[in-house]
Amino acid sequence: MMIKSTQLGILVLILCASAAAVCGQSTAAAAAAAKTPDALVADLYRAHKLKRGPFFQTRSRALVDKYFAKPLADLIWKDAVTSKGEVGVIDGDPLYDAQDFEIKNFAIGKPAIDGTSAKVSTTFVNIGEKKTIVFLLTKGAAGWRINDIDYGGGRTLVSEFKDVR
């Protein structure tokens, strides 16, 4: 059976429209998911696991801004750019607070929301050690963004940058 050029054109149009609809749905789903603090944290871990996270990359400042409030985003971006592929201020995995990891029993807690501030805890076991990391978020015009990551014992991601500000 031979396809005429007009039929081929219509077929291509249908395929393009279908692809656009699917992409639009996944984009809309991602945008809807980021409407809660725990969804933003979950999306950050998902992107990080797929090697599409905001840390250690210099291709997209927008990727950093997607997850972090401007003051922390500025620090993360500057660290990535100025370290030029070498170890910078962030010298381990900031989402697991470790250089080596074997994660088990990972869970993201429900957010504790207080107006435009929120805390989201993640818990997991890394190489036999139980860890809790708390994400501190704020809600602005662009939605929820991470202000800091609390590793416990008075250590936070922002505090790691104290000597380079």
How would you characterize this protein structure?
The structure is a single chain. Strands 1, 2, 3, 4, 5 and 6 form a six-stranded antiparallel sheet that branches. 41% of the residues lie in helices and 26% in strands. It folds into two domains: 1-33; 35-160, Nuclear Transport Factor 2, Chain: A (Roll). The chain is α+β, with helices and mostly antiparallel strands and 165 residues long. Mean pLDDT is 84; it is low at 5-33. It is globular, with a radius of gyration of 20 Å. Strand 2 and strand 3 (117-126) form a beta hairpin. It has five helices and six strands, in the order ααααββββββα.
Query: Under CATH, the topology of the largest domain is which?
Result: Nuclear Transport Factor 2, Chain: A
Provide the helix percentage: 40-55%
Task: Please report the number of helical segments.
Answer: 5
**DSSP E strands, number:** 6
Strand content: 25-35%
Distance between the termini: 69 Å
Give me the strand/helix succession: HHHHEEEEEEH
Could you name the ranges where pLDDT drops below 50 across 5 or more consecutive residues? Answer: 5-33
Give the integer mean of the pLDDT values: 84
- Tell me the number of structural domains: 2
What is the rounded Rg?
20 Å
Instruction: Report the CATH C-level class of the largest domain.
Output: Alpha Beta
Task: Characterize the main sheet.
Answer: 6 strands, antiparallel
